[in-house]
Amino acid sequence: MHEMSLAESIVQIVEDTARQHGGTRVASVRLEIGQLAGVELDALRFCFEAASRETVAAGATLAIDQPPGQAWCMPCGGSVTVGSLADPCPDCGSHQLQVTGGTELRVRDIELG
């Protein structure tokens, strides 16, 4: 389950950031995880709760923004929204897509409490 290693990395980022700003408790964490990032959000929430126990992030609210997948279609030249990496171009049906967005995985905000 790679969500546990992701959660542990997120907690480390949160702890380091809180320490740099003199925080002793984190109230909330907001993540940006693109629809094409390959992360199971419910599993990540569960893992974050487990990984943050006994840290400054214990009990913190976890908010997740999920931008849609974006791709450029080589045959028709359009910029399109896709729900998965296996989706065809909704305009022409081609599978020759170059992903341009929706693969993000980043900590956006940390609110100290």
- Write down the CATH topology: hypothetical protein PF0899 fold
> What is the number of helices?
2
Strand count, sense and barrel status of the largest sheet are:
3 strands, mixed
CATH class, please?
Alpha Beta
List keywords for this structure.
3-stranded antiparallel beta sheet; alpha+beta; 113 residues; 31% strand; hypothetical protein PF0899 fold; 3-stranded mixed beta sheet; elongated
Description:
The structure is a single chain. This protein has helices at residues 2-20, 41-51, and strands spanning 26-33, 61-65, 69-73, 79-82, 97-101, 105-112. By secondary structure, the protein is of the alpha+beta class. It has a single domain, classed as 2-Layer Sandwich (hypothetical protein PF0899 fold), CATH 3.30.2320. It is elongated and about 55 Å long. The mean pLDDT is 96.
Helix-strand layout with pairing:
Elements: H1 2-20, E1 26-33, H2 41-51, E2 61-65, E3 69-73, E4 79-82, E5 97-101, E6 105-112
Parallel strand pairs: 1-2
Antiparallel strand pairs: 1-6, 3-4, 3-5
